[in-house]
């Protein structure tokens, strides 16, 4: 995620806004009707006061003076999150050579992110499984799905690995235009529900959420700066971003000099653009594709997966927000695909 040259600690206003979002999760899950399957109820029950308190403690750590380790591996403009902070966040490992990681990082396999939206289903980026984008990634036998993982330097006993049996690309997906960048992964088996490390998460089904100027959270194991390429983070990070209007975002990406570098991408209501506009400094980056953008889209303001990371013009550059695929427009496709192939 993007690079921020200002002081390392979170500004107080940022911390307070984050706490506000955390409180929204707590309140929503105490009153949210239990109308979904048992696995969804399990997730909702898991977001109890104790769990939310743990998240609040993570904010306290973020406000405090950082350790040397956190200075090394932070989302620039954000923070490493608590070890059990977002138990639906998934790390997708490609075990073959896709030229992402360098000779200095041979022990890393994380390539993309995702969200566990049902017991055997991960929502992610379609481009991550497109041979035309990342050669070899269409070979599902080369992938591992890491659930409940935090620090990728450690052999964590609680981490669960699954294989992918099928990939379902959104029918509207178009690589050349970076459009409809959404896919569902079917896993070989559900997780063991190691509370509080593995839960599912609700995805947004409202096409108009999020809206411009709304504040959301982006998560991921991706790069903490645009360069050097291939240096993703060993631990996952979160950053607070603000949604930009589609008109402003499309205008920035439509500039002739930008189009000459990244091609004729289409940015419309299919997308969400978010970052720290216009200053830059906060963004998703390489290795974050498919990772969730969490916004308060629920009926009670709870955080839901509102979009997935797709692409950007570099990372966290001034004048450019990151571009995401809006989930609410395709909620019916997600639900139907899972129902028909479960």
What does this entry look like structurally?
With 342 residues, the protein is α+β, with helices and mostly antiparallel strands. The chain has a single domain (1-342), classed as Trypsin-like serine proteases (Thrombin, subunit H). It is built from seven helices and 14 strands. The chain has helices at 12-31, 38-46, 49-63, 68-72, 246-253, 256-262, 331-341; strands at 79-80, 89-94, 110-118, 121-124, 143-147, 160-162, 164-169, 183-187, 215-220, 237-244, 271-275, 292-296, 303-311, 322-326. The chain has a seven-stranded antiparallel β-sheet with strand order 6-5-2-3-4-8-7, with helices on one face. It has a six-stranded antiparallel barrel with strand order 9-10-11-14-13-12. Helix 1 runs antiparallel to helix 3. The radius of gyration is 18 Å and the shape is globular. The two termini are 34 Å apart. 48% of the residues are buried. The model is unreliable at 1-15 and 22-76 (pLDDT under 50). InterPro entries: Peptidase_S1_PA, Peptidase_S1_PA_chymotrypsin, Peptidase_S1A, Serine_Proteases_S1, Trypsin_dom, TRYPSIN_SER. Residues 75-339 form the Peptidase S1 domain. GO terms for molecular function: serine-type endopeptidase activity.
Task: Write down the secondary-structure element order.
Answer: HHHHEEEEEEEEEEHHEEEEH
Overall structural domain count: 1
Helix content: 10-25%
Q: Can you tell me the CATH topology? A: Thrombin, subunit H
Number of helices: 7
Q: CATH homologous superfamily, by name? A: Trypsin-like serine proteases
CATH class term:
Mainly Beta
Q: Regions with pLDDT < 50 over 5+ consecutive residues?
A: 1-15, 22-76
SS-based structural class? alpha+beta
Radius of gyration equals 18 Å
Largest sheet: 7 strands, antiparallel
Strand content: 15-25%
What would you say the CATH architecture is?
Beta Barrel
- Sheet with most strands: strand arrangement: 6-5-2-3-4-8-7
Distance between the termini: 34 Å
Say how many strands there are.
14
Rough outline: globular
Overall pLDDT level: 79
Pfam families: Trypsin (PF00089)
Protein name: Serine protease
Organism: Plakobranchus ocellatus
Transmembrane segments: 42-64
């Amino acid at each position: 995620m993007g690079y921020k040259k200002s002081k390392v600690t979170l500004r107080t206003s940022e911390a307070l806004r984050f706490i506000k979002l955390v409180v929204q999760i707590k309140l929503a899950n105490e009153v949210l009707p239990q109308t979904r399957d048992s696995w969804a109820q399990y997730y909702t029950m898991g977001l109890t006061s104790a769990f939310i308190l743990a998240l609040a403690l993570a904010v306290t750590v973020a406000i405090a003076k950082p350790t040397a380790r956190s200075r090394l591996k932070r989302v620039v403009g954000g923070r490493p999150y608590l070890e059990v902070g977002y138990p639906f966040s998934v790390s997708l490992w490609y075990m073959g050579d896709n030229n992402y990681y360098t000779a200095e990082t041979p022990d890393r396999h994380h390539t993309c992110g995702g969200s566990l939206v049902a017991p055997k289903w991960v929502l992610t980026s379609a481009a991550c499984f497109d041979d035309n984008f990342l050669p070899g990634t269409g070979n599902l036998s080369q992938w591992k799905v890491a659930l409940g993982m935090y620090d990728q330097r450690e052999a964590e006993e609680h981490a669960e690995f699954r294989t992918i049996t099928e990939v379902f690309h959104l029918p509207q997906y178009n690589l050349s235009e970076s459009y409809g960048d959404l896919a569902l992964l079917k896993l070989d088996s559900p997780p063991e529900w190691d509370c509080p490390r593995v839960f599912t998460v609700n995805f947004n089904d409202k096409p108009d959420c999020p809206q411009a100027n709304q504040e959301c959270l982006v998560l991921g194991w991706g790069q903490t700066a645009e360069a050097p390429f291939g240096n993703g983070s060993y631990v996952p990070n979160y950053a607070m971003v603000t949604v930009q209007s589609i008109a402003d975002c499309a205008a920035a990406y439509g500039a002739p000099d930008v189009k000459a570098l990244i091609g004729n991408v289409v940015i419309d209501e299919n997308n969400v653009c978010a970052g720290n506009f216009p200053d830059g400094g906060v963004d998703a980056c390489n290795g974050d594709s498919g990772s969730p953008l969490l916004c308060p889209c629920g009926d009670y303001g709870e955080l839901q997966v509102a979009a997935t990371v797709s692409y950007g013009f570099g990372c966290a550059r001034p004048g450019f927000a990151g571009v995401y695929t809006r989930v609410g427009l395709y909620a019916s496709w997600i639900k139907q695909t899972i129902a028909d192939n479960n």
